[in-house]
Specification:
single chain, 575 residues, Immunoglobulin-like, alpha+beta, 25 strands, six-stranded mixed beta sheet
Length: 575
């Protein structure tokens, strides 16, 4: 694969820098195009001379997102050395030379939005690829981005590149780079686009990639902090190339705010030292809307970002917020490495408190309505956390998946009832050895909320529709059956590995738990897991047709270098 430097040179986002004749021709043709469209290249509040002849910098590239059949969001960041606002001309064409403009207009990048600028480019044709760019006073020109609108009517195939958990100091965004040439038409980011931690905290300094230093160095709490952290990620060459290549549909998870967030707080938020959670939440959400190419569904409530996208008669994609708008406080405890929490009787009520809200009643009702009203074959959820039923016997968790505990449990499970010893019967007795989740931050911590969604999925099946879920958050790759309490399968879950963040190998050192052995053990312990990978990073390439969902788990060989190779494992679900 290309090295990072080569990618920078080849990126669609590379701003023209040749001071000679070619640059002159490009700029003059752009000016002519703007004048022909009726635009004027002036700064906000006056002529371009107010910028003192300075070229505006488009150092974070361009991006597009939230495509519909007739429109798409276009995004950039434009800044000069002062805090003067910059009026931009945006252009859309069907070719990279912009010979014929199809749409254009003005948008302002100002201090109020951190010098980001977004526009909803409307009046476009469905299922069409477009090129776009921005221009500022004094002939500053952004790089060229490529986007496309959603299809309508009969659709044979859609390809999605699906990402989650892109922690900057954990490594290079090689997964982004790999997806650029994957043939994907649209990108999905299922959350943790940024991380909030102080430099050296996550990952610890000893395991961070030396060249990948967080900015700002402190934990991000204020809007200025969040803007700086988003800027760090947008400046990454592989991130810029991905955004320039295809539109992204994104949703947040917890780290766009703080670790293990819920409506009213977060594990990684201290109101005594960091101020009110409401203020931090407002700063984080406002910055997300500034720096991501998202169409804000409700300008009066930036915390509401759940929304749907229709890809003709093939699929309806419903992007959920399982983190901020409806989530009640998850249990404070998870199973630690020693398993002591499992042995503590006070821990067990967490495992069986079923009533907590995850989506909230309003979002749940919205989802039911959207899926019921959709006429598409596939109803797909874009969702942050793993939904599958992943519970492990307490005896195994308490022993930290020791060979003896796993062997004893699996042997009991395989032994005919008539031949089981009293000890084996106790191991299989849920009253004496309950199955619990390894974490309660995912859907396992909200079983009634999950059952409500899966009950809706069961109704879809009777109506001839198919159901699947795309998930992130766990940093590991999963292919899970989605089942009702009685074991009836109503859908499938494809949960993706992280772009860079470490997975189970952080908790189960490979020397003691070889990844292949660990994956096989977990799969044997949990009936609904069809596939799991516990140690590799990458992204999912999801191909949908009327007959099936095929997911290629595309693994990158490393995140500690910008040079890498890829390997792929593929699974399908026919519904």
């Amino acid at each position: 694969m290309n090295a990072l430097k080569k990618q920078e040179e080849q990126s669609l986002l590379s701003t023209p820098r040749d001071p000679g004749r070619r640059q002159f021709v490009i700029r003059m043709s752009s000016v002519a195009a703007v004048l022909a469209s009726g635009g004027a290249m002036t700064a906000c509040g006056g002529s371009s001379t107010e910028l003192n002849g300075e070229l505006a910098a488009f150092k974070y590239g361009v991006a597009s997102g939230d495509p519909l059949a007739d429109r798409v969001i276009l995004w950039t960041h434009a800044k000069i050395s002062t805090d003067d606002a910059v009026t931009l001309i945006w252009q859309v064409a069907t070719d990279a030379t912009f010979a014929t403009l199809l749409a254009s207009g003005k948008v302002v990048a100002s201090v109020a939005t951190g010098f980001t600028a977004k526009v909803d480019a409307t009046g476009l044709k469905s299922d069409t690829e477009y090129y776009y760019r921005f221009m500022a006073p004094n002939n500053s020109i952004s790089g060229v981005g490529r986007t496309r609108t959603l299809p309508v009517g009969s659709v044979a195939e859609v390809k999605l590149a699906v990402f989650s958990c892109s922690d900057y100091p954990a490594g290079y965004f090689n997964a982004y780079d790999a997806a650029v040439s994957s043939g994907a038409q649209f990108a999905l980011h299922l959350g943790d686009y940024i991380y909030e931690y102080k430099d050296g905290v996550y990952p610890p300094a000893a395991s961070a990639v030396a060249a990948r230093v967080s900015a700002p160095a402190n934990e991000v709490v204020t809007q200025a902090d969040y803007r700086a952290r988003h800027a760090l990620h947008k400046a990454d060459p592989y991130a810029k190339a991905l955004h320039a290549r295809m539109p992204m549909i994104a949703i947040w998870d917890d780290h766009e705010f703080a670790n293990n967030a819920w409506m009213d707080g977060a594990e990684n938020h201290n109101p005594v030292t960091q101020g009110p959670w409401a203020a931090r939440k407002a700063a984080a959400s406002a910055t997300y809307h500034e720096w991501m190419p998202i169409r804000s569904p409700d300008a009066g409530n930036l915390l509401k970002i759940y929304r749907s996208f229709d890809f003709g008669n093939l699929l309806s994609l419903h992007m959920l917020d399982t983190r901020i708008i409806g989530r009640e406080h998850q249990p404070d405890r998870t199973v630690d490495a020693s398993g002591s929490d499992v042995a503590d009787p006070a821990f067990l009520p967490y495992a069986f408190n079923t009533k907590k809200q995850l989506l909230g009643t309003t979002q749940q009702a919205w989802l039911d309505t959207q899926m019921s009203a959709s006429t598409a074959t596939w109803q797909i959820l874009g969702n942050q956390t793993v939904m599958g039923r992943i519970k492990i016997a307490a005896s195994v968790l308490a022993a930290n998946l020791s060979v003896a505990s796993v062997t004893a449990y699996l042997t009991a499970k395989a032994t005919p009832v008539a031949l089981q010893t009293p000890t084996q019967k106790d191991l299989l007795n849920p009253a004496k050895n309950p199955k619990i989740s390894y974490t309660f931050d995912n859907w396992e911590g909200y079983p009634d909320a999950r059952d409500a969604v899966l009950a809706s999925a069961a109704k879809l099946k009777t109506a001839g529709k198919k159901f699947a879920v795309l998930s992130g958050d766990s940093h590991n790759a999963w292919f899970n059956k989605l089942t009702l309490a009685d074991g009836t399968q109503v859908g499938a879950e494809f949960a993706g590995m992280a772009v860079t963040s470490s997975g189970f190998e952080s908790f189960f050192p490979p020397a003691a738990f070889p990844p292949v052995t660990l994956a096989a053990t977990i799969k044997a312990l949990v009936d609904d897991i069809s596939y799991i990978d516990t140690s590799r990073r990458g992204y999912m390439l999801v191909t949908l047709t009327p007959a099936q969902v095929k997911t290629d788990y595309v693994y990158v060989s490393t995140v500690t270098s910008s040079s890498y190779t890829t390997t792929t494992e593929s699974f399908t679900y026919a519904g």
